[in-house]
Amino acid sequence: MKYAIDHKSPIPLHIQAEALLRKLIAEDDYQEGKLLPNEVDLAKKLAISRTTLRQAINKLVFEGLLVRKKRFGTKVAQAAVSSKSNNWLSFSQEMALRGIPIKNFELHVTWVYPDEMLAKFFEIKTDKKILKMERVRGRSDEPFVYFASYFHPRVGLTGDEDFKKPLYEMLEQEHSVIATLSKEEISAKAASTFIADKLRIGVGSAVLLRKRFVFDQGERPIEYNLGYYKADSFVYTVESTR
Amino acid sequence: MKYAIDHKSPIPLHIQAEALLRKLIAEDDYQEGKLLPNEVDLAKKLAISRTTLRQAINKLVFEGLLVRKKRFGTKVAQAAVSSKSNNWLSFSQEMALRGIPIKNFELHVTWVYPDEMLAKFFEIKTDKKILKMERVRGRSDEPFVYFASYFHPRVGLTGDEDFKKPLYEMLEQEHSVIATLSKEEISAKAASTFIADKLRIGVGSAVLLRKRFVFDQGERPIEYNLGYYKADSFVYTVESTR
DNA sequence: ATTATTTATATGTTTGTACATAATAAATAT
DNA sequence: ATATTTATTATGTACAAACATATAAATAAT
């Protein structure tokens, strides 16, 4: 069985099923219109009840990702307009898609007190320490991005995790945290001495600052992420309809 | 009982319940934050199972009309929480929202031959002239953005239009062109001599480049728009879910 | 007075079961 | 050959029952 469900996991089965379905329907076959396995069979295969499976399917139907037809089956909704912008790719995935090999330069984990803004975002007090992760990434000896991430205590990170793994995969599997919503702010900045040093560029050079506010399913704050990209090393693409 | 459910009706009970809830929560009390009756009681009162009632509530929760909180209850979502990012606002609207008065510095209309890229985007030949509009905007004597727009011949602009009016309003009313899709690319750049001059900043200073590819309802290309924003004068916000 | 613990109560999760209904395909009658 | 009836097969609707979990509020411990 390609994908499966973990009955021992604290993540609700219907949430797991939902995630699984999203993976499943990302496959080419389904994108091209192949019908999903029928509910009764799929439920049996995943060892969950049909009701639970239906809960997951319902959500995707509501989102407009799937369409159901009686007697026929369930399939991926043929996107009316071209593919929706997927801003959800992680950094390594994005780069991997473009065939650029990534290397971690510096990876640094500390505990810090949040500033006013961060405390407000996390809805915690400023005297409660939170985990900060910094990393510089790039190709070989040429760094092109500096990241700083702050994690909400709720996530339960100890600092000993393997941050070389894809982050959200790790959070999902080991900490039952599923990030579903992200609000981003993108702007251009002149590099500070700190950033200039990290990216090995001149002070005042152009950098792209990408702030990300990440939330879980309950819209609770999970992560605050800052990314300083060297000019031209990163292009942000968005598609919007009205 | 104020509202009730008809078990003999061919309309599914959860649909009836949904309609009933919509009526119920339209009442002032609920609009002002009163909690709905709890699920168990309400189900009993309506003589349907809790599962069925939940099906109805779920739909309204999906829609964002209701919010649930454990141990607390279910109530009407307080309208217009964080307004979803509408990337469709025109520049002047965006700024107006922030209370910044806008002034047009330079407004310049010419006919030019498209370069390779543009010809490809517009699906025309490079020997067909197209309309180019340039403008510098900002507050009083401090410019903060330089725009260059190229319009597809299909739009039928002559160059004599009043470009001081909101652009898309004008296109819609006078040229029956309805822009519905936009693909954007955002990156940081070092200012070229040309841009530095326009924005009155130093060469090499940080600018945000925002390329917009605009399409009409038939997904036909309409406009190609370049915006060079002075660092920190513009923040792009995006909200994405998965 | 403050902090920790318990309890009550709402929503959240999950299963098993049953029958209804729409749409197609196959079998049958005209 | 064409219309009609009859399975078949998928989703659709609905219930009862049980246990899990978050959290506000009450209570006990410090």
| Helical content class of chain A | 25-40%
Secondary structural class of chain A:
alpha+beta
Q: Work out the strand percent of chain A.
A: 25-35%
**Over all CA atoms, what is the radius of gyration of chain A?**
21 Å
Strand order of the largest sheet of chain A: 3-4-5-8-7-6
- Profile the largest sheet of chain A: 6 strands, antiparallel
> Which whole number gives the mean pLDDT of chain A?
79
Q: Concise description?
A:
The structure is a homodimer of 242-residue chains. Chain A is of the alpha+beta class and 242 residues long. Chain A has 8 helices and 9 strands.
Question: Could you explain the architecture of this structure?
Answer:
Two copies of one chain form a homodimer. Chain A is an alpha+beta fold and about 240 residues long. Chain A has two domains: about 15-75, Winged helix-like DNA-binding domain superfamily/Winged helix DNA-binding domain (Arc Repressor Mutant, subunit A); about 90-230, 3-Layer(aba) Sandwich (Chorismate lyase). Chain A is about 30% helix and about 30% strand. Chain A contains eight helices and nine strands. In chain A, the strands form two sheets. In chain A, strands 3-4-5-8-7-6 form a six-stranded antiparallel β-sheet. In chain A, helix 3 packs across helix 4 (about 50-65). The longest helix of chain A has 14 residues, at about 50-65. The radius of gyration of chain A is 21 Å and the shape is globular. In chain A, about 25% of the residues are buried. Chains A and B meet through helix 4, strand 6, strand 7 and strand 9 of A and helix 4, strand 6, strand 7 and strand 9 of B. Strand 6 of chain A pairs antiparallel with strand 9 (about 235-240) of chain B. Chain A binds a DNA duplex (30 and 30 nucleotides) through helix 4.
